[in-house]
UniProtKB/TrEMBL annotation:
Source species: Desulfatibacillum aliphaticivorans
Family stated for the protein in its record: Belongs to the leucine-binding protein family.
Database matches in CDD domains: PBP1_SBP-like
This protein's name: Extracellular ligand-binding receptor
Keyword Cell cycle: no
Length: 399
């Protein structure tokens, strides 16, 4: 009887091991949806995000494309920067494609439109790279996390570059969520440091003629004592910087200040040698093994450095791999529990999802532009790293 019981026990254990192995081998893939503006004026951002996410997934899974032994499948969609289309696509990803979570989108206006979809389906949406404060502010819900920086993080770091008592600043930006939230946050941050915001201009995001708003700014500032700055916040192609450069601001003692941007935009900043500002990412600023790998591999594969939003996609991948690994599951509630307060590595260094609003706290980089005739763009030379504590935005949500 003892021998028979032992044989039965071994058979049960063997069957259990076989079933476990079979389950692992036949495990459903983890499905991740990506919605980005892959066409239109912000396509350079969206395409860099997708490239960065794929490279980040490769790096953080050590080339296996597996998390917890499960393959990862990406379903990538182009929002075309249209809010209605983005809502439709995210609904499709959650309902038809059965993705476990989603990443995106590019535009702040589009992001605000899709936040309720994540809430209705009770599925995670990692917002990357849309910036408006309201995404993790008044319009936030508990299924929304953001690896991208928000307007306040941009504003706090950029204000620190020039704002102090006696400084006068005018602001010019796009007339939609990104520009308005950005200027509101910048105004608050700059005035806390003692500067005075004397004028604000909001322009058509598709506009090309900035003569009138520039003249209004000059009229508001020309007779003020210095130092005087115009802070520019602009996303995508175009923008007022070239016309500001040719507007003869020097004779009024007015300087331009702005945040870092994609390499294409930094090319337009070559006349601004010495300009001060702060940036989310420039490939030469962070010093860590993750960024070293990204820079080296990006040069190998594309013969150019990773851009501003390549880092963003990479960071989102780091968050996804860490979250699913820690949760041991793709169950939404287990993911939320794992992600609240979670620290994860990125090319910028460590980020941390704040529990109260799921905004990723992160380092920002103060810079001074340097012009090198052998480099196509103005180089944001690092002057100081601003810690995640220094750039932490206000908490708006009361949970």
């Amino acid at each position: 009887m003892k021998a028979r019981a032992g044989i039965i026990f071994l058979l049960v254990i063997g069957a259990s091991i076989a079933m476990t192995a079979s389950t692992a081998l036949g495990a459903e893939p983890i499905k991740i949806g990506i919605i980005q503006g892959l066409s239109g004026p912000l396509e350079i951002y969206g395409k860099a995000e997708v490239t960065g996410f794929k490279m980040g997934l490769e790096y953080f899974t050590k080339g296996t494309n597996q998390i917890n032994g499960r393959d990862v499948t990406l379903v990538i969609e182009d929002t075309q920067l249209q809010a209605a289309r983005a809502k439709m696509l995210l609904t499709k990803l959650y309902s038809d494609d059965k993705v476990d979570l989603a990443i995106g989108p590019t535009s702040s206006g589009v992001a605000l439109a899709v936040l309720p979809v994540a809430r209705d389906f009770k599925k995670i949406l990692i917002v990357e790279p849309a910036v408006a404060d309201s995404i993790t502010g008044k319009d936030w819900n508990r299924y929304v996390f953001r690896t991208g920086r928000n307007s306040s993080q941009d504003a706090i770091s950029n204000a620190a570059a020039v704002a102090k008592p006696g400084v006068s600043i005018a602001c010019i930006g796009q007339d939609y969520a990104f520009g308005r939230d950005g200027i509101a946050a910048y105004k608050e941050a700059a005035e806390k440091l003692g500067a005075k915001i004397v004028h604000e201009e909001y322009c058509d995001p598709k506009g090309t003629d900035f003569v009138a708003p520039i003249q209004r700014i000059i009229e508001a500032m020309k007779d003020l004592p210095g130092p005087k700055y115009i802070w520019v916040i602009w996303a995508g192609k175009g923008g007022p910087i070239p016309q500001l450069i040719s507007a003869g601001l020097d004779k009024y003692g007015i300087e331009i200040t702005s945040g870092g941007n994609v390499l294409a935009a930094l090319k337009m900043m070559k006349p601004l040698d010495g300009m001060q500002g702060a940036t989310y990412y420039y490939y030469e600023n962070p010093s860590n093994p993750v960024n070293d790998w990204l820079v080296e591999e990006h040069f190998k594969r594309f013969n150019e450095p990773p851009d501003f939003f390549t880092c963003g996609g990479f960071a989102a991948a780091g968050a996804v791999v860490k979250a699913i690994t820690a949760a041991g599951s793709t169950d939404t509630e287990k993911l939320i529990a794992a992600m609240e307060g979670m620290e994860f590595m990125t090319p910028k260094g460590m980020m941390k999802f704040r529990k109260e609003d799921h905004q990723a706290l992160q380092t920002m980089f103060a810079f001074k532009l340097k012009v090198d005739p052998d480099v196509e763009w103005a180089i944001p030379v690092l002057t100081r790293e601003l810690t995640m504590e220094e750039t932490a935005p206000p908490i708006v949500n009361k949970r």
